[in-house]
Specification:
Two copies of one chain form a homodimer. With 507 residues, the first copy, chain A, is of the alpha+beta class. Chain A has three domains: 271 residues, Bira Bifunctional Protein, Domain 2 (BirA Bifunctional Protein, domain 2, 2-Layer Sandwich), CATH 3.30.930.10; 98 residues, Rossmann fold (3-Layer(aba) Sandwich), CATH 3.40.50; 80 residues, C-terminal domain of ProRS (Translation Initiation Factor IF3, 2-Layer Sandwich). In chain A, 34% of the residues lie in helices and 27% in strands. Chain A has 14 helices and 27 strands. The longest helix of chain A has 29 residues. Chain A is globular, with a radius of gyration of 26 Å. At the A-B interface, strand 2, helix 2, strand 3, strand 4 and strand 5 of A face strand 2, helix 2, strand 3, strand 4 and strand 5 of B.
């Protein structure tokens, strides 16, 4: 419990950002690392976020004609090998299944038995296995476009794990489409990126920069990788979603051919696009503060908690009846496609009860005591505001306005995050300033640095890699809205007119 | 395309039931076997069934206080070993991960590298990994009951696979609960089984028998396994869902302890319960006929397809406008928590169009031609009725009554399935009759046999196993509604008063 001038989360963001992040997750009871190396357990308060995010995304996908399907968890190694860059990107970190049973060995210990003829890998992504299905499903241009999505778990063996951001197993969706023309596939790539931008900004209240990845940062096997990038409160970038135009690379690797309207045989043009439970890490690091999580209302596990205050036993029934009635009235209201999600917490544990909900980040807390009931009022606290701003409101007005109130919270969270991003984004033209911008003031806190630098780049991979080697800074994206401008490459000084790109440290 | 007196599916059920089943799935485009041994690809028309089933179940679970969470895909082998019967049940057929990368070996082929210190298995079920989490989450009786569910994929290495019914990977939900008392855990076991019965009967229109498994057929590690058993159209039983009372077995294996209200330290009482994509196999084999799939309306991927009939180009716009308007009006109606799901199929492919939808099993087909429009009518065909029963209806009446019509189809499907089950269930008291009942008339069609036998059983495992060995017939369940009755064991002749159990061949 936090005392005056203390915070509920220790350390604070300023003291130790990475550790603060872990503590926010622990205090809000969202997830934990499991005893299985690199895997996490997503607890109900965290999983509800994923449920709400995925329902909203699923509706958006379906509105564009996408259908869901499900493909095997396992991929034969020879599938992976079909696309050269793809295998290079994923072979280094994948779970390999080599046996199909366990038997008692020496010391009575269970050991792998039943060796497979060909090892299988647990899918790190499904381009190859889905491509194989598409090669059978698609015969003619009439079968196109093929617009498929799958909700699934994937595994990438990570050495350094950070909950939600980088775990060996994570949950995601992966969309895979096939088109008759290059143009249509490129349009689909951007269309899906726009849905991710909408999810980030309109649901997670997380402003993002959209753009294209450089050659060095592209998805293995893609022609174009587009992305949404968000700034966290340590001013590092989080790649929060990607949408790839794959050209005909995977169509050729998997044999996705179709007969065109002109009766010629053509390879399909494919795309793939995905977001994952990483989004949860993103929203935590965007909004949370030194008192814990702050949930953006539109995907919050719950919108409001009712906290009945009973000091004398004889008041109990009266207060509880008022509370239950309020809960019912709130649940009748609809917000973003579902009912208002209400919790009642009548535990008798003193101030810890209020702090529990602050740490969980529920958007609204409503205290209800005999005095409030006498005035037909409720005492409302907003998670995004200082606790001193809590105030009494007529109950009916609270019920009538709850959707507007939640939207107001959403808008303020977004506005604050956007201000933060702008404040820590700087146009930098001098190499010295660039170096200083990315050099931590305190070497013990390597996470404290400048933020996003908008600088010129000549376009050469060597410059990009030199910066990465020296400063651990990468080009996050070539923003879609970049404007041509005279400048010199921040690394080599070569003149360029292409305009600025976004440099940052990244998760 | 089926001609008069021909069927759309060949072979028919009578000709070759197992092959008919595969062909129904192929013709309806629900799923296919993948090139990965034993794994299936669930295509959009099949996956939509799973989406609708899981949404309905999820709502029912949550209404009883269950929350969703997510646990690791991988289980360390030593976790599995903690419960002796459990490991025996699953070690024989599990995917074992032994390496965490691939490297170029001889001939430039990719080979497993980076051997793990301890192999991991891909979860066949999650009692042990979830039990480990519960042992950390639960401290006091105030933390109980703990009511958790997970939607996930699981892997059990199957040698003989049959799509939806028995595949190496399948999708399911697994609920896991912990209670302070034995009584409460047993009540939860039955409560969840009742939800499965409701799903089967009220959504899938699939009548089930509920009861308890014998010792030999129990889940490995359970004290009581309860189940729902349905009769397929080959008169074999399908175990369609199970709910287990696990006693304190897994609590002791995983160390799930809590401090009671009396401040003593106690082990929790746990349950687990699950249904899987097997339900889809069940509904196919319950309702489908020799023309293909028949979808139960409440979980059908689509409820109705509109088939505009345009013979002259100049009618086109008129017919399409009428069709789109009808679709819009239908989509405004709500049926079982969602809108009426409508498809428009305006492909110009002749009679194949109608047959496509028959094979897919959509509950209602609506033809719309200039003549119908002139009468403000629609021409409606029900999938569950003979095609000769198609008839013209005033459009408004069709729209107004669509929900009642769908419910009528549901009720008839259920009624027919129940009649089938009753017709092929027989009380058998003589060993000879029992043998004959389970002996196929035609040895080439081993699937054709009697159905469910209600017979007496002395309770001894030896009798049960002798019958299994000789006839491949097992006790499907000891029905909850069995009544004490004098009789003699169908195998050994010992007198018993316990009442009848259900014997059948099973999937």
């Amino acid at each position: 419990m936090a005392k005056k001038n203390e915070t509920a989360i220790s350390p604070t963001r300023a003291e130790n950002y990475p550790e603060w992040y872990q503590q926010v997750i622990r205090a809000s009871d969202m997830a934990e690392l499991s005893p299985v190396r690199g895997c996490m357990v997503i607890k109900p308060w965290g999983y509800a976020l994923w449920e709400n995010i995925s329902r909203a995304l699923d509706d958006m996908f379906k509105a564009t004609g996408v259908q869901n399907a499900y493909f095997p968890l396992f991929i034969p190694v020879n599938f992976l090998e079909k696309e050269a860059r793809h295998v290079e990107g994923f072979a280094k970190e994948c779970a390999v299944v080599t046996h199909h049973k366990l038997e008692k060995g020496e010391n009575n210990q269970l050991v792998p038995a039943g060796r497979l003829n060909e090892p299988l890998i647990v899918r790190p992504t499904s381009e190859t296995i889905i491509g194989d299905a598409f090669s059978r499903w698609i015969r003619s241009y009439r079968d196109l476009p093929m617009l498929i999505n799958q909700w699934a778990n994937v595994v990438r063996w990570e050495l350094r794990t950070r909950i939600f951001l980088r775990t060996s197993e994570f949950l995601w969706q992966e969309g895979h489409t096939v088109h008759a023309t290059k143009q249509e596939a490129i349009e689909r790539t951007y269309m899906m990126l726009n849905i991710y931008k909408e999810m980030a900004e309109k649901y997670l209240a997380m402003p993002v920069i959209t753009g294209e990845k450089t050659e060095a940062e592209k998805f293995p096997g893609a022609e174009i990788t587009t992305c949404i990038e968000a700034m966290m409160q340590d001013r590092k970038a989080l790649q929060a979603g990607t949408s790839h135009f794959l050209g005909q690379n995977f169509a050729k690797a998997s044999g996705i051919r179709f007969q065109s309207a002109q009766e010629t045989e053509e390879y399909g043009w494919t795309t793939s696009w995905g977001v994952s439970t990483r989004l949860i890490g993103g929203l935590i690091m965007t909004h949370s503060d030194d008192n814990g999580a702050v949930m953006p209302p539109r995907i919050a596990p719950s919108h409001v908690v009712l906290l009945p205050i009973v000091k004398k036993v004889e008041q109990n029934e009266n207060v509880m009846a008022y509370t239950r009635d309020l809960a019912e009235k709130l649940r009748e209201k609809r917000y973003h496609g579902g009912p208002i999600r209400v919790q009642i917490d009548d535990r008798n544990i003193g101030g810890a009860r209020n702090w529990d909900w602050i740490k969980k980040g529920i958007p609204l807390r409503v205290e209800i005591g005999p005095k409030d009931i006498a005035e037909d009022a409720v005492y409302v606290s907003r998670r995004d505001r200082d606790r001193k701003d809590s105030r009494s409101m007529p109950k009916d007005r609270f019920v009538d306005n709850i959707c507007e109130l939640l939207d107001e919270i959403h808008t303020e969270l977004y506005k604050n995050a956007l201000e933060y991003q702008r404040k820590h984004t700087r146009d930098i033209d001098e190499k010295e300033e660039f170096e200083a911008f990315f050099t931590p003031v305190n070497p013990d806190r390597p996470e404290n640095h400048g933020g996003f630098a908008r600088s010129h780049w000549c376009g050469k991979k060597e410059c990009e890699l030199a910066i990465k080697d020296r400063l651990n800074v990468t080009i996050r994206c070539i923003p879609f809205d970049r404007e041509p401008e005279d400048g010199t490459c921040i690394e080599c000084g070569t003149r360029t007119k292409k305009g600025r790109v976004i440099f940052a440290k990244a998760y």
